[in-house]
Specification:
Elements (H helix, E strand, L loop, with lengths): L3 E2 L8 H5 L6 E3 L5 E4 L3 E6 L5 E4 L9 E4 L2 H9 L2 H6 L9 H22 L3 E3 L1 H10 L8 E6 L5 H11 L4 E2 L4 H7 L7 E5 L2 H16 L23
Parallel strand pairs: 8-9
Antiparallel strand pairs: 1-3, 2-3, 4-5, 4-6, 7-10, 8-10
Helix pairs in contact: 4-7, 4-8, 5-6
Amino acid sequence: MKPIELNKEDPDGQDAELRDPRDPLRRCIVTGTVQPRVDMIRFVLGPDGMVVPDLENSLPGRGLWLTAERATVERAVSRNFFARAARRSARIEAGLADRLEMLLERRCLNLVGLARRAGQAIAGFEKVRESLKTGRVGRDGPPGLLLAARDGSEDGRSKLRALAGDLPLIEEFEASALGAALGRDNAVHALLARGRLADRLRVDAGRLKGLRKTIPVGHRPAGQPLNDGPVGHQ
């Protein structure tokens, strides 16, 4: 969704929020644009003035919202937009953008693990390919989300992408990290069934992508292309 520029008659974005109650909007304290809340990161100030990320959007206090982009977070830190927006002193920990990236990756991989334990995820090129052909993820309904390790083979990724059609594709994790979440040594290809877990993962992976340092998809150390590893100990 294209960001909506604030105007003088709507300085807090309140009218914008009323445009679509199903898709709450918030104003970025750095760019001044109003965007869907799911594309942003909320912060609050703790009692000691420390800037605290609120990825669950549940902490008490006035929310300070940022677009989920590394450049925006780094600008907010360097010029302390948090203090300006809150109109009080604000303390910011070093490496806030890096910490956000780490927290979002952890959240995403936890969701993958939950999907595995709920029987809503499968891994391995052949299993994923067969599920895309049949339109079923085991007994749990149609596919909702395709995952491909960023350090995996482009050939395998392309073949599955061709079968997936317009199914959302996430390429934010190394094969080792994705494998750990799925109970394997490595996982290059995975598929989640449609549902709440897939929806939550898509949102958090989108925010994570904005916070990532630039690393080309398909980058991996020299050597043989990664393949989906054997099932490890659960």
